[in-house]
Amino acid sequence: MAEIATVCPYCGCGCGLYLHVRDGVVVGSSPSRSHPVAEGRLCLKGWHAHEVVDNPRRLTRPLVRRGAELVEATWEEARSAVVAGLGNTLEAEGPQAIGVLGSARCTNEDNYALVRFARGTLQTPNIDCSLRIQCVPDTSQPGEAWRAGVSTGQIADLDDADLVLLVGSDPTEEHPAVGARIYQGRQRGLRVVAVSTRKHPLAGLADVHLPVRPGGELRLIASLLHVVLAEQGMAGEERPGGEDLRAGVADVSPEVTAADTGVSADLVRQAAGLYLSSQRAVIVYSAGLALSAQSGAAVQALHSLAALGSGGSGRQVSVLSLLCRNNLQGCRDMGVAPDVLPGYASLGDDAAVQRFEQAWQCELARGTGLSAWEMPGRVRAMYVMGDDITRSIPDPEATLSALEALDFLVVQDIFMSPAASVAQVVLPAASFAEQDGTWTNLERRVQRTRRAASPPGEAREDWRIIADVSRAMGKPFPYEGPPQIFEEISDLLPIYAGVFYPPLAVNGGIRWATPEARDAGGPEEARLRPPPAEALAAPGSELRASDQYPLLLAADPTLRPWDGEVMVSQMLTVAGEFTVLIKDYPDGMLCLNPEDAKRFQVRGGRPARVVSPKGECQMQVRVTDEAPPGVALVPHNQATRLGIMEISTDQAGGRPLLAPTPISVGPAE
Amino acid sequence: MTARILPHERIDEFVTRLMQSAEVVAPRRVEVADVFYGPISSPGEVAWDYGTAIEPLKRFLLPQRETMLRFSTNGGIKVEAECDERERVFLGVRCCDVTGVGVMDAMYGGDTPDPYYMSRRERSTIIALTCLQAPDETCFCVCCDAGPFLTKGYDQQWTSLPEGMLVEIGSERGEALARANEDLLAPAELDQIATRYRLAREAEETFGDFKSYIAGAMRKLSMNEVDPEVWEQAAMRCTECGGCTYLCPTCVCFTVTDRMNGSQGVRERHWDACLNNCYAREASGHNPRPERGDRLRARFFHKISHQWAERNGRQACVGCGRCVAGCMAWAHMPAVTEGIRRGVMT
Amino acid sequence: MNNPYLPKIASIRKVKPETYDTATFTLQLDDPTERKAFQYRPGQFVELSVFGAGEAPFCISSSGHGRDTFDLSVRKVGCVTDALHEMGEGGQVGVRGPLGNSFPFEEVEGKHILFVGGGIGLFPLRPQIEDVYRERDRFASITVLYGARTPDDLVYRDELEEWQQQEGMTCLLTVDVGAEGWTGNVGVVGTLLQKVEIDVPNAVVFVCGPPIMIRFVVQDLSGMGFGEEAIITTLERHMRCGIGKCNHCMIGDKWVCKDGPVFTYRQMKAMMEFEE
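Above: the input entities. Below: the structure tokens describing the complete assembly.
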């Protein structure tokens, strides 16, 4: 029996995990006790991480479309088809007509190779990862692209914190390793303040729960800033931006914002009081905040709140951006985005471009490309690696139709996915347990994953598949394996300087430091920046209830986020735990407060008819006091396909977001 | 079956001999600081000074995934069972884990013995290693009659004295092992045996205040006198991560799946956790325990009720503290028994 | 060592559709020695393997008297049953059993025997009805009360006709919701209790059906004066082994597969999770 040290492939926590191998067969998973994140714990998904190996549903052979069917083919045939398909589009329409999607679940090496393939070999700037839609858009200054949605601290900061401020995050469901520390911290007096529409378990146990109305998050945070500034001021210190910040939130006292946020001034002042009396606080946010409108400004406001602490008042505050996936951070670090180069180097930075062109031995596409959510309708061919675009962005049906309508689509993955089912070529990839590589978790912790088994059938490592295609298209990659790829990453990406494979072997890896930390040698400081005035403006009347549409429907990304996700739904044993939505609420789980359920005469488990200005649909009802009166909640993963929710375009990032939508509810006939 | 002394300088040779005829499973350090029980390839790998192993012996006696049957459907169905017949010596096992094996024996033996478990168990020799002090602040074997020293349940029990291991014999198998290696052993003196008993008392005293109040909770639970509020509160402090179940030395629930590869197939069993929503859910969709509080109550009833203690010969908690280490929230044995006792969860 | 997880191979001899989602499969063990040794009593169940799809428990729904085959009446509701319903005569399956305890028989000799069945709850009752009827002079009387949600959900229609007509047995039917062409009783099966005269102190009643039906009928029966030992039911639970090892069917300190599936109302009340 050997224990192979690796990392859990699910959420962004990156818990250290051992795969047990006996007689060459992967037979189980265990937590690492010495690991700084896991500390001996795993969630249900982690305990079953080994089930991706020896899984009968794995893709094991290349598939090529012949008519209506995908049939098995050799690697040569598949590769030729890919080269021909991409080549045709390149010739007929040019590189702008090709889109490439990278993966929040593949390794840094895989993603880096894909970026090189996209900008170098294919010369297309259209490279992105659909889960970037869950990332806070970049509202930072030039050269600070890394700031957007990056954690300033680490999960262990919760261990000696006296206050945790949860904004939009339900760690119990989304990030159990974080949740664990909060549940246990409560036993030694950790105070919990939760800002969330839904009364999730930790919000229910919180010292103060601020049940913010959907759309009111920014104003609520700004009102907290207002109170903290008023009470504590700058603590006698001149801080750059301090005056602007104070002016920027002068008009948003809790009394003024109460009507739109739905939270009484008393509660806000109570929460602010707890914050003010804390010495060591951790601010935590997740997709629950990141997928709301104005999330960029909201997160910047949280950073401002954190920055008010350090310095004069002595309060130390870290901010944790809880990314949903094991390598969402790393995939962005590697430049899987249309508007930056690997390491967040600017596309306009000649020196950086030159460095990459030298390393890659070719020119690279310097333009800003299409975002993932723009690609399906606007390109003619796509190369998709480990990305579940039909799950990440609104209107899965439209997305799938658009993918089907492409001249050429190649999908590289470990399981069959909706996108793969309409592709011209499907390439079987190795899972996390079958290849070496690195991932970067939500703490910027770069960790090694290790191969514990051979890929099944003819599946191959992602980076190798890409390298083979690139070679066939005339641009060979010189890499022999992940260590060489990582050497280049470490060389060319300043944020990864000093991170090498040997030191990564230590349990817990290495966290890459933000440039300030490296230069100043001290804790990172965010600058104080006021929320933009137009963002702070009160939400429009469409977010208010009316007689015709008396409830507000919000898509909640923290509600059963893993149900139906590709890796958990293919598990052999506990897939049932993650298909509750599909089995019991197939049309959509409409969470209603008992008062509202009574008012609109609908019952738990029964179908309800839901009407919005945009359309109508049917959903199954779940009566729960997790939903506040006046607000109905539906899991974000189901909301994307209802067709009744307004889609707003995020000002800062151009993301299509499901906006809170007024609805009426009644029993279905 | 008199006690012996195995001088420290002879231990490696003893272990080498064990390795010649069996797979020797002992505590080993992995990645520097994590200790797992696992097969050793040399006597030097044994981490004699360890605290506790991350997981109990369950990994070897009841693996997380094991093949039960192989079948083929080509030209008429043929089915075969597959049992592990490896000889094993479990060396340096903490007393809590040894007690855990005893509980598994009761659950998997009985009138319908489980052949996969028994095939391994019958080929296992268990050599316990006593704790001279509480290895972890989460340990509470003293509340569960499962350590730090045992008086039965082992083949041999070793206690580290200055001059060597005191080897107590607990079974015929243990005696046979001693006899086969008599040249390395010497009979134990009376004062060495007295030392062992003194060390046991001193060890118990190091367990401090961390108690699990199991006895009080047992009674209320067995009589169904626990306020339903307590289970609701416990449910808010549990995330169904499965950690307590998978790490517990006496949790043995499993689920079964068939896997086909063309016309060949296997039937495997896998660890399962009763706290999971779908654990008891029937194909029709009916779920007899739809609330997490119900599932928590069923779990703790199975662990420490008088009723189950009668069926298994003792209550099933051995105080190893792993549920405390592995809990993603606050619903482990000490937390819940305290909640039961006090009528409210903190 | 005997391996209780190793199935015996059996072949499907006949498939008879009962309703739109249920069918009765007549099985016969392939090996003649195993066939002879397969002796069971009403109330017992088997673990049936559809190799590749999985294994699931099914009560034996026929009397063993005078036959070397046995029936499993199965509703199409999940992986294993879906796969089974795709199979026809000659198909091979795996069988483990007979498992569990059985309905009392000798112990209730001389009593008035009442059966109350709901929907597919008639499946485990049929073998007991048949055995009791065959030896009806050992019992004071036999009454079968059966109901389903709609006429389309009534199972064992041929048997129901026989039971309604034959001597020595009273059989009444009802449906919760009537339909065109249905001229019989309409109402939940508990309403049939008022239509028969029962010598309660000398009667025992076998109840089986959906959990909610059992709950209401047992309430009615208790109200009529039936003692807790005189009400007998059979429970079903998700199972993975059928032999008291996987613990999925555990209720309180009992396993439905080993201590049951047949329980008296008294035993059920004593179960930790019992709710009135």
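Note for the figure: The mean pLDDT of chain B is 94.
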